[in-house]
Specification:
It contains two helices and four strands; from the N terminus they run H-E-E-E-E-H. By secondary structure, the chain is α+β, with helices and mostly antiparallel strands.
């Protein structure tokens, strides 16, 4: 696990506060993140969502919801 974190740091990633005792969450910029988890045979590295990506998706979902549900004054295209 220490070697994987060292390799991530060498690649420009930094550990974030979302890391815990059994996994490390590393992020390079607002679009690039990963989780590093230990296994009996080594480590597993998986892509992860960044906070910036979650904010964008949430904003688009809100716009779609209000636009499709016909809430007066909240639609994207005014009739």
């Amino acid at each position: 696990m220490d070697e994987a974190l060292a390799a991530a740091a060498a690649a420009g990633f930094r550990m974030t506060t979302r890391s815990g005792p059994n996994r490390a969450y590393v992020q390079r910029d607002w679009m690039t993140a990963a989780t590093i988890s230990p296994t009996p045979g080594g480590v597993v590295v998986k892509p992860a969502w960044t906070t910036g990506q979650m904010v964008i998706v949430a904003g688009v979902l809100v716009l779609l919801f209000f636009g499709l549900c016909g809430v007066p004054g909240a639609g994207i295209i005014a009739a």
